[in-house]
Specification:
The longest helix is centred in the last third of the chain and has 21 residues, at 105-125. The relative contact order is 0.16. This protein has a 4-stranded mixed beta sheet. It has 6 helices and 4 strands; from the N terminus they run H-H-H-E-H-E-H-E-H-E. The model is unreliable at 19-40 (pLDDT under 50). It has a single domain, classed as OmpA-like domain (60s Ribosomal Protein L30, Chain: A). With 164 residues, the chain is an alpha+beta fold.
Length: 164
């Protein structure tokens, strides 16, 4: 996950470095009177994109060991997802379910799916159209943090939203 984030940051930095300054091409001409463009909250982040979702909303919720019920803080986070999805009605969201390394592959795939479905069900209950949501489970196959300790396991028991 750190590598994916770093790649996104590097891509944004490269795109920012490619921008040009129009004042050099104006040759002293008067400034344009067109309406100002609304800038994204963070420089280089496109509104409604995955980068916007991660930077300004937060893309994950966490679960207790061997559970798929949503805690109060997870519901609070998911309410932010609902607001984002209502603001950008053309966006689709893939909800990825994940588990820590303990348990069999089959068990963790099923647990990840239950986690992703509990997130989907909550989003639908808050007014998001089910047709905009897709669920996938990765079980223990894509850990966010490597390690065999409670700290790593806690970060891996999660559901992640991916804007499409």
């Amino acid at each position: 996950m750190k590598i994916r984030f770093l790649c996104m940051v590097a891509a944004v930095a490269l795109l920012g470095a490619c921008s040009s300054d129009d004042t050099a091409n104006n040759s002293g001409a008067a400034a344009s009177t067109t309406a100002p463009v609304v800038a994204p909250t963070k420089p280089g982040v496109v509104p409604g994109s995955q980068a916007d979702f991660v930077a300004n909303v937060g893309d994950r919720v966490f679960f207790e060991f061997d559970k798929y019920s949503l805690k109060a803080d997870a519901k609070e986070q998911l309410n932010k997802w609902v607001a984002f999805l209502k603001k950008y009605p053309n966006d689709q969201l893939v909800v990825e379910g994940h588990a820590d390394e303990r348990g069999t592959r089959e068990y963790n795939l099923a647990l990840g799916e239950r986690r992703a479905n509990s997130v989907k069900d909550y989003l639908v209950s808050q007014g998001v159209q089910a047709s905009r949501l897709k669920v996938i489970s990765y079980g223990k196959e894509r850990p966010a943090v490597l390690g065999s300790n409670e700290s790593a396991w806690a970060q891996n028991r999660r559901a992640v939203g991916v804007v499409q």
